[in-house]
Amino acid sequence: MFNSFEDTCRYLDFPEEAIESLAFQYNKIKRCPPAADFICGVFEDYKNDCLKDSLYALQGSFEKICQEIDVHSFSSQMIFYLCLVPALYDKYLARGFSEEIFRDSMLDLRCKLFECYRLYGIWGSFVAVWFARFFNFTLYGIGRLEFAPYSCDFDFSYDGGQIKKGDPVIDVHIPSRGRLPHFEVIDSYKRAYDFFKNTLKIDAKAFVCESWMLFPEHEKIIPEAVNIMAFYRDYTIVHKGLYPEGDDLWRIFYCFVKDNYDMIPRKTYLQKQYAEFLEHGGISGWGQGICPVERVIGEQ
User: Fold this and answer.
1) Do residues 167 and 151 touch, judged by C-beta distance below 8 A?
2) Which of the residues 45, 192, 194, 287 could staple to 147 if both were Cys, CB 3.0 to 4.6 A apart?
3) Is the dihedral of CA 109, 112, 118, 123 positive or negative?
Protein backbone atom coordinates (compact mmCIF):
# COMPACT_ATOMS: atom_id res chain seq x y z
CA MET A 1 0.00 0.00 0.00
CA PHE A 2 2.81 2.42 0.92
CA ASN A 3 5.69 0.85 -0.98
CA SER A 4 6.83 4.19 -2.38
CA PHE A 5 6.28 7.92 -2.04
CA GLU A 6 4.11 7.80 -5.16
CA ASP A 7 2.00 4.97 -3.68
CA THR A 8 1.22 7.15 -0.68
CA CYS A 9 0.13 10.00 -2.95
CA ARG A 10 -2.10 7.70 -4.99
CA TYR A 11 -3.66 6.25 -1.83
CA LEU A 12 -4.76 9.81 -1.05
CA ASP A 13 -6.14 10.31 -4.58
CA PHE A 14 -3.64 12.97 -5.57
CA PRO A 15 -3.82 13.80 -9.29
CA GLU A 16 -0.95 12.51 -11.41
CA GLU A 17 0.27 16.03 -12.14
CA ALA A 18 0.64 16.66 -8.41
CA ILE A 19 2.33 13.30 -7.87
CA GLU A 20 4.90 14.02 -10.58
CA SER A 21 5.61 17.46 -9.16
CA LEU A 22 5.96 16.31 -5.55
CA ALA A 23 7.95 13.20 -6.52
CA PHE A 24 10.42 15.40 -8.41
CA GLN A 25 10.94 17.50 -5.27
CA TYR A 26 11.06 14.39 -3.08
CA ASN A 27 13.84 12.93 -5.21
CA LYS A 28 15.85 16.13 -4.78
CA ILE A 29 15.47 15.63 -1.03
CA LYS A 30 16.58 11.98 -1.27
CA ARG A 31 19.73 13.07 -3.09
CA CYS A 32 20.60 15.59 -0.37
CA PRO A 33 22.07 13.74 2.66
CA PRO A 34 21.13 16.39 5.28
CA ALA A 35 17.52 16.52 4.08
CA ALA A 36 17.21 12.76 3.57
CA ASP A 37 18.76 11.95 6.94
CA PHE A 38 16.54 14.48 8.67
CA ILE A 39 13.23 13.18 7.33
CA CYS A 40 14.30 9.54 7.86
CA GLY A 41 15.14 10.38 11.45
CA VAL A 42 11.79 12.07 12.01
CA PHE A 43 10.00 9.06 10.55
CA GLU A 44 11.80 6.62 12.86
CA ASP A 45 11.28 8.80 15.93
CA TYR A 46 7.60 9.34 15.12
CA LYS A 47 7.07 5.63 14.47
CA ASN A 48 8.67 4.75 17.80
CA ASP A 49 6.99 7.53 19.80
CA CYS A 50 10.26 9.22 20.70
CA LEU A 51 10.14 12.58 18.94
CA LYS A 52 12.47 15.05 20.59
CA ASP A 53 10.51 18.08 19.38
CA SER A 54 7.03 18.97 18.17
CA LEU A 55 5.98 18.16 14.62
CA TYR A 56 5.51 21.89 14.06
CA ALA A 57 9.12 22.62 15.01
CA LEU A 58 10.45 19.67 13.01
CA GLN A 59 8.45 20.72 9.96
CA GLY A 60 9.99 24.19 10.21
CA SER A 61 13.50 22.77 10.42
CA PHE A 62 12.83 20.54 7.43
CA GLU A 63 11.62 23.53 5.40
CA LYS A 64 14.86 25.39 6.08
CA ILE A 65 16.97 22.44 4.92
CA CYS A 66 14.83 22.05 1.80
CA GLN A 67 15.14 25.71 0.89
CA GLU A 68 18.89 25.13 0.51
CA ILE A 69 18.20 22.69 -2.33
CA ASP A 70 15.52 24.84 -3.97
CA VAL A 71 12.49 22.89 -2.77
CA HIS A 72 9.64 25.32 -2.26
CA SER A 73 8.33 25.73 1.27
CA PHE A 74 4.81 24.67 0.25
CA SER A 75 6.14 21.48 -1.35
CA SER A 76 8.37 20.61 1.61
CA GLN A 77 5.49 21.11 4.05
CA MET A 78 3.38 18.56 2.18
CA ILE A 79 6.27 16.13 1.68
CA PHE A 80 7.11 16.22 5.39
CA TYR A 81 3.70 14.82 6.36
CA LEU A 82 3.36 12.52 3.37
CA CYS A 83 6.52 10.78 4.59
CA LEU A 84 4.83 10.12 7.95
CA VAL A 85 1.56 8.72 6.54
CA PRO A 86 2.68 5.05 6.60
CA ALA A 87 3.71 5.34 10.26
CA LEU A 88 0.38 6.96 11.16
CA TYR A 89 -1.45 4.13 9.39
CA ASP A 90 0.27 1.60 11.65
CA LYS A 91 -0.58 3.68 14.71
CA TYR A 92 -4.25 3.81 13.69
CA LEU A 93 -4.43 0.04 13.36
CA ALA A 94 -2.58 -0.44 16.65
CA ARG A 95 -5.23 1.65 18.39
CA GLY A 96 -8.03 -0.35 16.82
CA PHE A 97 -9.21 2.53 14.62
CA SER A 98 -10.71 1.73 11.25
CA GLU A 99 -8.91 2.28 7.95
CA GLU A 100 -11.99 4.22 6.82
CA ILE A 101 -11.45 6.88 9.50
CA PHE A 102 -7.73 6.91 8.73
CA ARG A 103 -8.39 7.55 5.07
CA ASP A 104 -11.06 10.17 5.78
CA SER A 105 -8.55 11.92 8.03
CA MET A 106 -5.73 11.80 5.51
CA LEU A 107 -7.94 13.14 2.72
CA ASP A 108 -7.46 16.51 4.39
CA LEU A 109 -3.99 16.49 2.81
CA ARG A 110 -5.69 16.29 -0.57
CA CYS A 111 -7.97 19.21 0.33
CA LYS A 112 -5.02 21.37 1.31
CA LEU A 113 -3.13 20.25 -1.81
CA PHE A 114 -5.84 21.67 -4.06
CA GLU A 115 -6.24 24.82 -1.98
CA CYS A 116 -2.53 25.52 -2.40
CA TYR A 117 -2.59 24.86 -6.13
CA ARG A 118 -5.67 26.99 -6.77
CA LEU A 119 -4.30 29.92 -4.78
CA TYR A 120 -0.60 29.76 -5.61
CA GLY A 121 -0.18 27.36 -8.55
CA ILE A 122 2.05 25.10 -6.43
CA TRP A 123 1.33 21.50 -5.47
CA GLY A 124 1.87 21.47 -1.73
CA SER A 125 0.38 23.12 1.33
CA PHE A 126 0.66 26.55 2.90
CA VAL A 127 -1.04 25.48 6.16
CA ALA A 128 0.58 22.10 6.82
CA VAL A 129 0.85 22.90 10.54
CA TRP A 130 -2.84 21.92 10.58
CA PHE A 131 -1.87 18.35 9.64
CA ALA A 132 -0.06 17.89 12.96
CA ARG A 133 -3.45 17.57 14.67
CA PHE A 134 -4.20 14.38 12.73
CA PHE A 135 -0.76 12.96 13.46
CA ASN A 136 -1.09 13.84 17.17
CA PHE A 137 -4.53 12.20 17.43
CA THR A 138 -6.40 15.41 18.26
CA LEU A 139 -8.42 15.62 15.01
CA TYR A 140 -10.24 12.95 13.00
CA GLY A 141 -11.94 12.85 9.63
CA ILE A 142 -15.20 10.94 9.84
CA GLY A 143 -17.24 11.00 6.66
CA ARG A 144 -17.76 14.48 5.25
CA LEU A 145 -16.58 16.40 8.33
CA GLU A 146 -13.67 16.53 10.76
CA PHE A 147 -13.97 16.37 14.53
CA ALA A 148 -11.84 17.15 17.58
CA PRO A 149 -12.38 16.62 21.32
CA TYR A 150 -13.05 19.91 23.07
CA SER A 151 -14.26 21.34 26.37
CA CYS A 152 -17.13 23.77 26.06
CA ASP A 153 -15.97 27.28 27.01
CA PHE A 154 -19.41 28.75 27.75
CA ASP A 155 -22.73 27.84 29.39
CA PHE A 156 -25.68 27.08 27.12
CA SER A 157 -29.31 26.37 27.97
CA TYR A 158 -31.85 24.97 25.54
CA ASP A 159 -35.21 23.25 25.59
CA GLY A 160 -34.53 19.93 27.18
CA GLY A 161 -31.21 20.54 28.82
CA GLN A 162 -28.16 22.56 29.70
CA ILE A 163 -24.53 22.39 28.66
CA LYS A 164 -22.08 23.79 31.17
CA LYS A 165 -18.69 25.34 30.68
CA GLY A 166 -16.16 22.49 30.78
CA ASP A 167 -18.53 19.80 29.50
CA PRO A 168 -17.09 17.54 26.78
CA VAL A 169 -18.17 18.56 23.29
CA ILE A 170 -17.02 17.80 19.75
CA ASP A 171 -15.41 20.58 17.72
CA VAL A 172 -16.48 20.46 14.05
CA HIS A 173 -14.40 21.42 11.00
CA ILE A 174 -15.48 21.45 7.35
CA PRO A 175 -12.81 20.31 4.87
CA SER A 176 -12.96 21.83 1.39
CA ARG A 177 -14.22 18.72 -0.38
CA GLY A 178 -16.88 20.39 -2.52
CA ARG A 179 -20.60 20.10 -1.90
CA LEU A 180 -21.94 19.66 1.62
CA PRO A 181 -25.09 17.52 1.33
CA HIS A 182 -26.93 17.63 4.62
CA PHE A 183 -27.56 13.89 4.70
CA GLU A 184 -23.77 13.40 4.63
CA VAL A 185 -23.39 15.96 7.44
CA ILE A 186 -25.93 14.13 9.61
CA ASP A 187 -24.23 10.81 8.88
CA SER A 188 -20.90 12.32 9.97
CA TYR A 189 -22.43 13.63 13.22
CA LYS A 190 -23.82 10.18 14.04
CA ARG A 191 -20.60 8.33 13.26
CA ALA A 192 -18.49 10.89 15.11
CA TYR A 193 -20.66 10.69 18.23
CA ASP A 194 -20.36 6.90 18.18
CA PHE A 195 -16.58 7.02 17.63
CA PHE A 196 -16.01 9.52 20.42
CA LYS A 197 -18.28 7.70 22.88
CA ASN A 198 -17.39 4.07 22.20
CA THR A 199 -13.79 4.31 21.00
CA LEU A 200 -12.38 7.45 22.61
CA LYS A 201 -14.65 7.11 25.69
CA ILE A 202 -15.81 10.74 25.43
CA ASP A 203 -19.53 11.22 26.07
CA ALA A 204 -19.97 14.50 24.20
CA LYS A 205 -22.94 16.72 24.99
CA ALA A 206 -22.91 18.81 21.82
CA PHE A 207 -21.18 19.72 18.60
CA VAL A 208 -19.59 23.16 18.41
CA CYS A 209 -18.31 24.93 15.33
CA GLU A 210 -16.69 28.25 14.47
CA SER A 211 -16.72 29.00 10.75
CA TRP A 212 -17.45 31.52 8.02
CA MET A 213 -20.34 29.19 7.18
CA LEU A 214 -22.05 30.18 10.44
CA PHE A 215 -21.99 33.92 9.68
CA PRO A 216 -25.54 35.11 10.65
CA GLU A 217 -25.71 37.48 7.66
CA HIS A 218 -25.99 34.42 5.41
CA GLU A 219 -29.75 34.51 6.03
CA LYS A 220 -29.71 37.62 3.82
CA ILE A 221 -26.66 36.99 1.59
CA ILE A 222 -27.13 33.38 0.48
CA PRO A 223 -30.62 32.24 1.57
CA GLU A 224 -30.84 29.80 -1.36
CA ALA A 225 -27.51 28.08 -0.66
CA VAL A 226 -29.37 24.98 0.47
CA ASN A 227 -26.50 22.92 1.85
CA ILE A 228 -24.72 25.75 3.66
CA MET A 229 -27.96 27.03 5.19
CA ALA A 230 -28.95 23.52 6.32
CA PHE A 231 -25.59 23.23 8.05
CA TYR A 232 -26.04 26.72 9.52
CA ARG A 233 -29.48 25.91 10.93
CA ASP A 234 -28.16 22.90 12.85
CA TYR A 235 -26.55 25.39 15.21
CA THR A 236 -27.58 28.05 17.67
CA ILE A 237 -25.21 30.98 17.12
CA VAL A 238 -23.62 32.09 20.39
CA HIS A 239 -20.82 34.35 19.14
CA LYS A 240 -20.19 36.20 15.90
CA GLY A 241 -17.71 38.64 14.41
CA LEU A 242 -16.49 40.35 11.26
CA TYR A 243 -13.47 39.89 8.99
CA PRO A 244 -12.65 43.52 8.08
CA GLU A 245 -9.79 42.29 5.88
CA GLY A 246 -11.88 39.57 4.27
CA ASP A 247 -9.77 36.83 5.85
CA ASP A 248 -11.83 33.84 4.73
CA LEU A 249 -13.10 35.11 1.37
CA TRP A 250 -10.51 33.00 -0.43
CA ARG A 251 -12.56 29.98 0.58
CA ILE A 252 -15.39 31.31 -1.58
CA PHE A 253 -13.50 32.86 -4.51
CA TYR A 254 -10.22 30.88 -4.44
CA CYS A 255 -8.30 34.07 -4.87
CA PHE A 256 -7.22 36.74 -2.40
CA VAL A 257 -9.89 39.46 -2.50
CA LYS A 258 -8.80 43.07 -2.29
CA ASP A 259 -10.90 46.08 -3.24
CA ASN A 260 -11.08 45.33 -6.97
CA TYR A 261 -14.31 43.34 -7.00
CA ASP A 262 -14.49 43.39 -10.81
CA MET A 263 -11.72 40.78 -10.87
CA ILE A 264 -13.27 38.17 -8.60
CA PRO A 265 -14.98 35.13 -10.16
CA ARG A 266 -18.78 34.93 -10.25
CA LYS A 267 -19.32 31.39 -11.50
CA THR A 268 -21.45 30.04 -8.65
CA TYR A 269 -24.47 31.26 -6.74
CA LEU A 270 -22.27 31.68 -3.67
CA GLN A 271 -19.71 33.78 -5.55
CA LYS A 272 -22.34 35.94 -7.27
CA GLN A 273 -24.20 36.68 -4.05
CA TYR A 274 -21.04 37.41 -2.10
CA ALA A 275 -19.64 39.65 -4.86
CA GLU A 276 -22.82 41.74 -4.79
CA PHE A 277 -22.73 41.85 -0.98
CA LEU A 278 -19.15 43.14 -1.03
CA GLU A 279 -19.85 45.68 -3.76
CA HIS A 280 -22.54 47.19 -1.57
CA GLY A 281 -20.16 47.64 1.34
CA GLY A 282 -20.71 44.33 3.08
CA ILE A 283 -18.05 42.87 5.37
CA SER A 284 -17.61 39.12 5.64
CA GLY A 285 -17.63 37.42 9.01
CA TRP A 286 -17.93 34.30 11.11
CA GLY A 287 -20.12 32.68 13.69
CA GLN A 288 -19.66 30.21 16.52
CA GLY A 289 -22.51 27.84 17.13
CA ILE A 290 -23.52 24.95 19.33
CA CYS A 291 -25.72 21.99 18.49
CA PRO A 292 -26.82 19.60 21.27
CA VAL A 293 -26.24 16.02 20.13
CA GLU A 294 -29.92 15.07 20.34
CA ARG A 295 -30.77 17.81 17.84
CA VAL A 296 -29.04 15.96 15.00
CA ILE A 297 -28.72 12.34 16.09
CA GLY A 298 -31.76 11.82 18.33
CA GLU A 299 -32.13 11.23 22.05
CA GLN A 300 -29.14 9.54 23.68
Assistant:
1) yes
2) 192
3) negative
